[in-house]
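User: Please predict the structure of the protein below. I'd like the answer in structure-token form so I can feed it into my own downstream comparison script.

Assistant: Understood. Taking the following sequence of 611 residues as input:
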Amino acid sequence: MNREPSARLRQGRRDLEGIPGVKLLEDFVWYDAVKKWAIRVRLTREGPESRYVPRETDWYVLAANDYPWGKLKFCPAKQGSITATFHHQGYNRPCPDDRPWTFGDVCLNTTVNVLGRHGLEDEPFNAGGRRGRMRWHALRALEWLRLAASGELVKEGEPFEVPHFPDAILANTTVVYAEDAASFEAWDSTSMTYGLLNLVPLAAKPSIHAITGFYPLPGQPVLEQKWGPGTLSDTPPARGVWLRVAAPLVNEPWQAPATWSELCKACRAGGVDLDRILMKLFRPIRDGQQHVLLVGFPMPERVGGKNVRMHWQPIRLPVLVQGDVIRKGFRPGKESARYCLDRSNALAGTAELEWLNAENWSQTQLVSRGAVSGDLANSHVLVLGGGALGSVVAELLIRAGLRRLTIVDDELLQVGNLCRHTLTLPDVKTAKAESLAARLRNINPHAEIDFVTDEFPPRGESAAVLTRCDVVIDCTANDAVIHHLGQFPWSGKKRFVSLSLGHAARRLFCFFADAPAFPEEQFQLALSPWLQKDRAEVGDAELPREGVGCWHPVFPARADDVWLMASIAVKHLEETLKPGTPANGLTVFEQQFNGAAFTGVVRVPSEAANG
């Protein structure tokens, strides 16, 4: 590789020279360890005097070889720069090797820098000029320093930012919990501030440990956390300890503790005497194993707002002292002697904390990028048919936050199904319903997903499960199932939905009915003209077949067509299930083409069947 900076990098450097408050100290140097160019600059900020932000500070600008593309970072120099950690900054500690900067790069780009929309200033990707990318970042760095010095990096109403805990994201263990507004009310109503906890690994990912309950040292649970059936492994729970403080776990200005002395200081600011509490908590976990200490604090959604949920941050504890300890000034066997020895060695003030990664896996957090309405999310949905259409509809609903789903299908997955099914090769020759349930449990750890591997209608206990559902979605396209839907002894009024596809999935047929039993005759009258139209359009075209021997035609449709129509079905389902919305009759959606060019999908009028 050429070890000379490119013409575009040299253009970015020239742009820096013309900015008031920016002085170049060194030219670009290539650092092979990070595959970046770095140039040292001195920034002279405006604003008031500050305890943490000198008037002049040195920084390294890190740029990729293909600048103006790639990541661009402003990192404090190890010498002559800020040493504290602020909001909108990585934990500010020196890099461990010969790199002359720290890890405390500041956040200068916007959260939508790729798209540059939603009304935020878009990050430029020009090599130079008035809209050069390096110049744009330098101007923002000067503004960042001014705001840091004046204490204005965050303002009321902005999203609340949890401090950056050093190396937590790199840990090989993640601890997950489920905290929301409802659980916060439980925390707010209890006086308990410390105790024991249980953790269980996820069945599908043993490096992720889920909290299943918080307990006082003796007594009933303070809070139990529920996870969907099949989410957790069947291993016995691991014991840990927890404590909560009244304020975010930081030292000024916004720096997470890195050592035990810094943790004690931060806890004192949160109203907690850490040594007093740990002496009590450590007694039941002196077993020669490592355990987790979970430290929690309340947080608001936005700066200045009221607290609405708990944040928990785990620390992996070292192995604690066991047995009798003879120590001058302590009686043998005293817990205080063991704790004092811990604090003198593994938990000494300068000993570094081993932070672990923590994530809030509450239902509201998991579907924050997009969820179905509460009316649908809170329904118990029964899906009849786990084939191509049924599998996609079920998965879309679970990904969007549906909490209760039952799948009924008596067939095994065949290899020919894989071209448009959500299941994969390891599931071939397994029961579709059971394998789908397993897949969906690995998507939403809070969903309750049941399955029935009998044909519809099932008998015995399975039949009783089905009567308890709220919404029945038939995806079988099977006349016998339609007949039995009308004969099955449902308990009370249900919302019935029949979803089926026309030839090559060019049309989607959505039939809805609010009734104590499925209206078979009404359904057949509505759908029959469309089926006749479909047959007329197909004509004598030969259907594809699988295997050899007896001719066995299969339904032709590509995965993109099936999934497109399944997505439309879910949107229409959500729309129709809103309270007060009439839910009776047939709606037809049809793909549109201009010649061979796909132009979209439209809702077509019922009389179009006769056109």
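That's the full token string. The chain is about 25% helix and 20% strand.
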